[in-house]
Amino acid sequence: MDKFWTQGYPAGVNAYIDRPHSTVLDIFDDKLQAFADRQFTSNMGVSYSYAQIDSMSLQIAAWIQNLGLAKGSVIAILPCRCIISMLLSAR
Questions:
Q1: How far apart are the first and last CA of the chain?
Q2: CA-CA distances (angstroms) from residue 47 to 18, 28, 41, 52?
Q3: Are 33 and 66 in contact (CB under 8 A)?
Q4: What is the 3-state secondary structure (H, E, C) of 27-77?
Q5: 43 has which bridge partners?
Q6: Rounded distance between C-alpha atoms, residue 86 and residue 90, angstroms
Q7: 3-class DSSP assignment, residue 87
Q8: Is 89 helix (H, G, I), strand (E, B) or coil?
Q9: What's CA 11's distance to the chain center, in Å?
Q10: Which of 6, 49, 70, 71 is geometrically suited to a Cys-Cys bond with 15, CB 3.0 to 4.6 A?
């Protein structure tokens, strides 16, 4: 594909970037590992680290996978302003 718009880029601006991640989930997983010991969020007076969020979201994902749903099944997630909503969206 001819990226004609790159012809107008100023000197020193790279027209192509190296993407170390191929999906948003890859980025999220990378950051969960990189900042494992840092605080991710605080909810109702309780703080959670990136490592805790990673662990809890994996547990929830495993629980959902063990419900016996067919591969590709759609499940609804009720968004709320709580840690559970964040955990469900993490996986």
A1: 34
A2: 35, 19, 6, 10
A3: no
A4: HHHHHHHHCCCCEEEEECCEEEEHHHHHHHHHHHHHHHHCCCCCCCCCCCC
A5: 46
A6: 6
A7: helix
A8: helix
A9: 34
A10: 6
34-50 per-residue burial string, b: 16 or more CB within 10 A, e: under 16: eeeeeebeeeeeeebbb
Structure token pair of residue 41: 């969020």
pLDDT by 10s per residue, the chain, length 91: 678 888 888 988 888 878 787 888 888 889 999 999 999 988 788 899 999 999 988 998 899 889 999 988 988 877 666 666 666 665 5
Residue 9 one-letter amino acid: Y
